[in-house]
Every structure is written in structure tokens, then in C-alpha cells.
Design a protein that fits this description.
By secondary structure, the chain is mainly alpha-helical. The protein has one domain: MetI-like fold (Orthogonal Bundle), CATH 1.10.3720. It contains twelve helices and no strands. The radius of gyration is 27 Å and the shape is globular.
Length: 283
């Protein structure tokens, strides 16, 4: 064994041989699979047809601007700082409403799901309120809160509350009774039984309510910002409508759609993480 015949030298020599003999197996970027690309096929096709129709004059730019015009409006409003500021304002309003309304709906759903007395006291009232379209309350809400942030927070919270409540209540009430009995056999009761059996069993339904509430959240925010707002995506769209800037109006709709999709992606990722013990959510 020579002076330079050390384990480190041998390892380096083997690595050099591997690189020299198998250079084709070097570093390469992983390409996205078919399953990841397929969901974007239809949106890309729609945008391509839309652009072709505008370029050939089949679609009037006065009625519907081309995707290129919308992209140009996106760049202009981003560089001016208007779009980032409006997106932050709208997102803050939306998630504040989700936090307030979602928390109330979640707590009421848990309470009515586990307590017969709580259900008898509040469920009938909640079901009556649920049948009232919350957007129909806008004139009354403006009288109560004015056109400030309070009215937008109230409407968004009200819209989010009922989907979360109903699905949380449904999830708690439909936990497998055999699992509850088994938990009691193992000595669980009270908080331990709820934490280890009832709540995990209700999580799939709770996440369905959350994802549905996210859609209602953005829908309510669009309407409330279109009525009276001094900032936000709806305010930007209203100003653009007054000056016949259809590219900015369409951009506002696209931004709402993208924000809604991002919120749903985050909710689905959280769902998979918290329900990885469930075979139905296993990858």
C-alpha cells in the first residue's frame, strides 16, 4: 500500500471513474410529470384560443381584451405599486373574515356536535339565519357599519361562518360510533376521547367546509369591495370600469381567481398533512 493509498484517495479515484465512465448520468433537472401538467391543459388551451380570437379580430378588444393586453396591464400596475398594495389589502380583508367567521362556525359546530343541549339552543336559529342570503344584507350592513372596513369584515365573516359550521357539525355527528365505543373501552373520556377519536374523525368534513368557505370568502369580498372601498382589488376594478379600462377589469378577475386557487392549494396541502394517517388521503 503506497503513501497515497488512503480510503479518501480510493473514494476520490472511484468517484472520478464513475464521472468519466458515466458522464451521461450527471446532473439533470427533473421534468414535471404528466399528472402535474394535465390540470393546466384546459386553462392554457382557453388562453391560447382567446389570444388567437383577439389577434384575428374575432373578439373585439372593446368587449374583451386579449391575454397580451391583460399581461401588459399586470406589468404596468405591478411596476407602479398599485397591484401589490391592492392585493395585500384584499387578502388581509379576506383572511380576517375567514379567521373571525371560521372560528365562530368551528366552535359552534363542535359545541352542537358534542352537546345535545347546545344543539337544541342554537341550531334552529343558525339554520334560519343560514337561509338569508348574506349579500342581501348589504344595505342594512351599510346602515349599521357604514362603508368602512367593519362592513366588509362582517359580510365576509357571515359568509364563511355557515359552511364551516355545517361541515364541522356534520363531521362530529358522523364519527363512527364503534370507534367512540372502542375509545371508551380503552379508558378514554372527555377531552382525551375528543382529541384522539372525535376530532380526527371529523377532520375530513371540516376541511371540506374550509375549502367551500374559501370560495364564499372571495365571492363576498368581490361584492363588498365593488360597492364601497378606498383600496383593494375591487376598488381597482371599479376605477378601471369608470375609465373603460377593460384590461384592468379582466386583470382584477384573474387576480381573484389566482388568489382563490392559491388558497385552495394551501388548504389541500394542509388537509393532506393532517390526514396522512387516513388511507384515503395517502399519496
Amino acid at each position: 500500500m503506497s503513501t497515497f493509498d488512503t480510503p479518501f484517495a480510493r473514494a476520490a479515484a472511484e468517484a472520478g471513474k464513475t464521472k468519466a465512465g458515466g458522464g451521461r448520468a450527471g446532473f439533470h433537472l427533473p421534468l414535471p410529470g404528466r399528472d402535474r401538467l394535465l390540470p393546466y391543459l384546459v386553462p392554457v388551451a382557453i388562453i391560447a384560443l382567446w389570444q388567437i380570437g383577439c389577434s384575428l379580430g374575432w373578439i373585439s378588444s372593446r368587449i374583451m381584451p386579449s391575454p397580451a393586453d391583460v399581461a401588459s396591464a399586470f406589468w404596468t400596475t405591478t411596476m407602479s405599486g398599485q397591484l401589490p398594495e391592492d392585493v395585500l389589502v384584499s387578502s388581509a380583508r379576506a383572511f380576517a373574515g375567514l379567521l373571525v367567521g371560521g372560528s365562530i362556525g368551528f366552535l359552534l359546530g363542535i359545541a352542537n356536535g358534542v352537546s345535545k343541549l347546545s344543539e337544541q339552543l342554537t341550531d334552529t336559529t343558525l339554520q334560519m339565519l343560514r337561509t338569508i342570503p348574506h349579500l342581501a344584507m348589504i344595505p342594512l350592513v351599510i346602515l349599521w357599519f357604514g362603508i368602512g372596513e367593519e362592513s366588509k369584515l362582517f359580510l365576509t365573516s357571515l359568509g364563511v361562518l355557515f359552511p364551516v359550521y355545517l361541515n364541522t357539525y356534520h363531521g362530529v355527528r358522523n364519527v363512527d360510533r364503534d370507534l367512540i365505543e372502542m375509545g371508551k373501552v380503552y379508558g378514554m373520556s372527555g377531552w382525551t376521547l375528543f382529541r384522539k377519536v372525535i376530532f380526527p374523525g371529523a377532520l375530513p368534513s371540516i376541511f371540506v367546509g374550509l375549502r367551500y368557505a374559501l370560495g364564499i370568502m372571495w365571492l363576498t369580498l368581490i361584492v363588498s369591495e365593488s360597492i364601497a372601498a378606498s383600496a383593494g382589488i375591487g376598488h381597482m376594478a371599479n376605477n378601471a370600469r369608470e375609465f373603460m379600462m377593460t384590461d384592468v377589469v379582466v386583470l382584477a378577475l384573474v387576480i381573484y381567481a389566482v388568489l382563490g386557487k392559491l388558497a385552495d392549494v394551501v388548504a389541500r396541502a394542509l388537509e393532506r398533512q393532517m390526514l396522512k394517517w387516513n388511507p384515503a388521503y395517502a399519496k
